[in-house]
Design a protein that fits this description.
Elements (H helix, E strand, L loop, with lengths): L4 H23 L1 H18 L8 H27 L3 H4 L6 H19 L3 H11 L5 H8 L3 H19 L1
Length: 163
């Protein structure tokens, strides 16, 4: 006998509350409904023809899914507990890093200043002021493809200027 989506939906409606109570004992009330939905999602995805969806089968699936969720939550909590500030903090810039970044910015600024006026204007409208290509093309009376070409030209010049 094949399991249809209607049968799964009917079983879900009839067993949901009971299974949520069962899951609540392991994972708490805030996660119990997610566990039950996960169980039915897995059943739906696999649509196992050989398995009869009895209350005891659904209870076992819910208990196993609750245990899986609990273990996953515990692993995540342990992982967070063992993190130190040094592991996720940005590294402190050295004087050399600061000087190199300033030099890169100077070269980028020089490359932007060296662009033809229209190309520079389009580039700054997009990158500094957040205008879309459509907005730029309307404001300057250019086609979108022309704006795209000018942006490509500007980006290539910036990359070349920083290298």
């Amino acid at each position: 006998m094949s399991i249809t989506s209607d049968k799964i939906a009917d079983i879900y409606r009839s067993e949901q509350k009971r299974l949520e109570r069962l899951a609540t004992r392991k994972v708490g009330p805030s996660t119990a409904s997610d566990v039950v939905q996960d169980v039915f999602t897995r059943i739906w995805e696999r649509a196992i023809d050989q398995v009869v969806l009895t209350p005891s089968f659904l209870s076992r699936c819910t208990q196993n899914a609750s245990i899986d969720r609990l273990r996953s939550d515990n692993r995540f909590r342990d992982f967070q507990k063992n993190l130190t500030e040094e592991q996720y903090a940005a590294p402190v810039a050295t004087p050399y890093d600061i000087a190199a970044a300033r030099d890169d910015l100077r070269r980028l600024d020089d490359a932007i200043r060296a662009l033809p006026e229209r190309t520079r204007h389009i580039f700054l409208l997009n990158r500094a002021h957040g205008f879309t290509y459509e907005e730029i093309s309307e404001a300057l009376g250019l086609s979108r493809s022309m704006v795209e070409r000018e942006m490509a030209r500007a980006l290539l010049a910036c990359v070349a200027g920083v290298k």
